[in-house]
Structures are given as structure tokens and as C-alpha cells.
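Entry 12.
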Amino acid sequence: MTGTVRLTAGIVAICAVAVALYVLIEAAFSPWARSLTGAATLTGEWLGHMTTPTGAKHLVWLEINHDVPSAECYGCPTIEGRAATCDGAAKIHHYEVWGGVENWSGTQFHLKTRETEESEVHLLYLDGKWAGDEISLTTTLVAPGIPQTTHWERNEAGEETTTVIDGHPDTRSPIAFSLGRGTLRDFEARCKAGVL
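Predicted 3D structure (C-alpha cells):
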């Protein structure tokens, strides 16, 4: 075996060990992102629909990826991805997504979104719960530039609550919805066909 072949074999072996070590560390510290047993993970593509407070249906696609922050970046997002919504007119709105998990197993997580093109009403924050092949999300839509009036009060337990009483009607109440597994291709086909 020549010196070049030995050097190449050594580099390949070191790279293989590094990849295997990375996978093991990711599975140990972020089981929601990497499974060594083939169990479901939070990462991947999700598809479903939501209904706004005014009754408008929107198809929703979400892609979640594990973003490993550098050692110098304390508190940086551990989730990054993309999202898209499709309305009844087959208009698609695209979003960048980032956030993090609330616990080691990733069963609770939060996301922020940034729309890549402005629309009248859009997603801003998503609070999620994950179990197997379903995620449950809660969001409150926002309407940039449209004034809103918030009513503050105390409920029967003495906790402060807020209610949006003015502005766009779809921004007044939280929306809860669920997503299952589904691809961007599925999303685009359903949006084009008007299957929300």
C-alpha cells in the first residue's frame, strides 16, 4: 500500500468516525431531530389546514430542520425551516421559520415566521406540540398596518387577559390546527386543485 493510498484511507476513516460521532451526539441530545431506532421525529415536512376566525380555510405546509448552533451562539435557534400557506384563491404565501424546542424530547416547541412577501394577514408566531406523526399548532394572525385595539381585563381566577376588539377580524382570536406528514409537492398539488 502506497503512502498516498494509506493517507486517503486514513482521511476517509477519520471522516466516517466524525460523522458517526455527530449522529450519536445528535440522537442523544436532540432525539426529536435524530432517531437511531427509526422512530418518528419532529423534523421533516408537515401538511394540513387551518380555518381563520372568519371561516376562511388555508392549506398549511411546514418544513422543520435541526439547526445546530455553534458553541459561541448561546440561545440561537435549534430549528430552522420554511412554511407556506395557500388560500381559497390558490395564492401561496412563503415564510422563513426559526425557533426552538421547550424540552429535551421536543414534544413542545415554538416558532417565529418571517413572510417573504407581504400579505394582508399572515402568520407570526406558532406554538406547537408534537406526538408521532401529528403536530398541533396555535397561532394568532397579524395584519401589518391595520390598527388594532386591545381590551385588557381580569378573568374569574384573577389572571389578566387580553382580547383584540378592533382591526382585521381574522386577528382577533387564536387559531388551533393540526398537521400530519405531507410534502411540498402534496401542498402545491392540493393548492392548485383547490383542495384546502
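Annotation: Strands lie at 44-51, 57-66, 79-86, 92-101, 108-115, 125-131, 134-139, 150-154, 160-164, 175-181. The two ends are 62 Å apart (CA to CA).
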